[in-house]
Amino acid sequence: MNIKCIENYEFIEEKDENVSLYFSTSKNNLNFKINSEEGMRNISNLKSWFNVEKVGYLNQIHSDKIYKFDGNAYDGDSIITNQKNVAVGVFTADCVPILIYDKTSGVVAAVHSGWKGTVLRIVEKTVKVMKNDYGCDEKNISAVIGPHNKVCCYEFGVELVEDFKKIDIYRNEDIYVNGKLDLQKCIIKQLKNAGITNIKPLNICTYCTKEYQLHSYRRDKEKAGRMFSFITIKAS
What we know:
Elements: E1 2-6, E2 9-16, E3 19-24, H1 37-50, E4 54-56, E5 66-68, E6 78-81, E7 86-92, E8 96-102, E9 107-113, H2 115-119, H3 122-134, E10 141-145, H4 158-165, H5 168-171, E11 176-177, E12 180-181, H6 183-193, E13 198-201, H7 217-220, E14 227-233
Parallel strand pairs: 4-7, 5-6, 10-13
Antiparallel strand pairs: 1-2, 2-3, 3-14, 6-9, 7-14, 8-9, 8-10, 11-12
């Protein structure tokens, strides 16, 4: 895990051969809220900052809707592409960003998974689309779980935990500790259930980390900006 500095901003960087993954921080108030002029300007800036041709994203709705990148912004929470020099990403300020890739097939995906998307198993469904529609082999698929409100801080009502316990893959998992929900454990369970073993959690909490400056809606409420986590395949 490295830090890439661009224009006085910081991005947490992961690389694997021709695949690059980035998780923005809030250093110097970097904000990607798409309903603001500032956010759209920063989305556009990514093209020159990271030398990509296009940036793909969705209007996130806490769903299990998955789209293949075609240049449009649909209502959904997972976006997949096999196009080179295209960055696809998701916006977060406590929810979980998951970047998934198959470097052998040249397919990448960005997933936004809050508690509703995690109940709906959007990550597992994304892997299924990669396998069924793009011919990806689960042995070649890797996933990186980015900064989010981790179990140390994610207070969650006990009545809603029942939605998780009704689902077979979560039923016997210890996902609720002292009134807090472990979304990361749920997502790892989904990935393993889909046959993925190469899983890397960054283990960074948006709410309490002291190492990075990050947006957190639960901590900062309406003052919180949005981070953008994205992945791209570089042309060889």
